[in-house]
């Protein structure tokens, strides 16, 4: 008679979700500019606090592109995403 043992590793799998912060890096405040993804950057910082009514930054969840998140939105729609993160 043979005994067969199986050892299995039970490691906890951690799925780390990495969101991306995008900073508004343009001086353009014309209608539709805030929904234009080319006016945003994942690096640097925003000068919104000193440059008037523009978004500072937005947080985009992993698995979602910036285009999917804000593409084509009006300026007021983008500002409504983070109403406390802008200078009126």
Structural features, described:
This protein has 88 residues and is of the alpha+beta class. It has one domain (20-81). 14% of the residues lie in helices and 12% in strands. The chain contains two helices and three strands; from the N terminus they run E-E-E-H-H. The longest helix has 7 residues, at 75-81. The model has no long low-confidence stretch (mean pLDDT 80).
**Percent helix range:** 10-25%
First-to-last CA distance: 81 Å
Q: Quickly count the helices.
A: 2
What is the chain-wise order of helices and strands? EEEHH
Whole-number average pLDDT?
Answer: 80
Largest sheet: 3 strands, antiparallel
Oligomer description = single chain
Provide the low-confidence segments as ranges.
none
Gyration radius from CA atoms, angstroms:
21 Å
Number of strands: 3
Shape: elongated
Strand content: 5-15%
The structure class reads alpha+beta
Count up the domains: 1
Q: Order of strands side by side in the largest beta sheet?
A: 2-1-3
